[in-house]
Design a protein that fits this description.
By secondary structure, the chain is α+β, with helices and mostly antiparallel strands. It folds into two domains: about 80 residues; about 110 residues, Alpha-Beta Plaits. It is built from four helices and five strands, in the order H-H-E-E-E-H-E-E-H. Strands 1, 2, 3, 4 and 5 form a five-stranded antiparallel beta sheet that branches.
Length: about 200
């Protein structure tokens, strides 16, 4: 199909307008694409920031739980008077009280010199664990006397009582009908553990 010069003149303006519209459309598509890409980037950045904030909050919550758990343990140790210097007078008083209450007539003990078990570095200062080993020799009517003694000792506080070993043997004394005679003897090594917080002391 051949167009005349006159027809070409008439088509020139519409063709120009069409070209301008196509160019304008391409610009709009480009701007729209750029805007969408920027919006996606902002959305991805916002999601990343939200995830990082959620992770930080989770870490903070976990740290708070750990601090609370450690604080609870610290308060329990403080109530038991496990923290601080060893309390030999309190230990002696507790054993005398248990001996009287449980009617343990033959109970002998000695507490050895304090030894450093472990030193845990911390901020602002270290925490030291000490043990004073108590050697106990006692006569028993039956094994439960020993278990009650250890339970009473632990309930008395002033240290953490860790039984290292106990040896129970028969005393060889014959039973008499008039009175109850102890037939067993116990030899025990019990560590009396105290904790010294250098930061709290200073």
């Amino acid at each position: 199909m051949t167009l005349t010069r006159d027809e070409l003149k008439r088509l020139a303006l519409p063709s120009l307008v069409a070209l301008m519209l196509v160019a304008f459309g391409a610009v709009l598509i480009k701007l729209s694409s750029d805007s969408r890409r920027e919006a996606n980037e902002r959305l991805a950045a916002a999601r990343s920031e939200r995830n990082q904030s959620a992770e930080r909050l989770a870490r903070i919550a976990e740290e708070e739980r750990e601090v609370k758990a450690k604080l609870d343990v610290y308060q329990q140790l403080k109530q038991l008077r496990v923290l601080g210097e060893e309390r030999r007078l309190e230990w002696a008083d507790a054993i005398a009280r248990i001996r009287t209450q449980r009617e343990l007539l033959d109970l002998r003990y000695r507490v050895e010199r304090q030894q450093l078990l472990s030193s845990v570095p911390g901020k602002p200062a270290s925490v030291d664990f000490f043990a004073s080993t108590m050697q106990v020799n006692m006569a028993l009517l039956h094994e439960e006397d020993l278990l009650r003694f250890i339970s009473d000792l632990r309930a008395s506080g002033n240290a953490y009582y860790s039984v290292r070993k106990c040896l129970v043997t028969r005393s060889g004394q014959p039973a008499t009908g008039a009175t109850l005679t102890p037939r067993l003897r116990a030899d025990c090594s019990i560590d009396l553990i105290t904790i010294l917080d250098r930061a709290a002391k200073s």
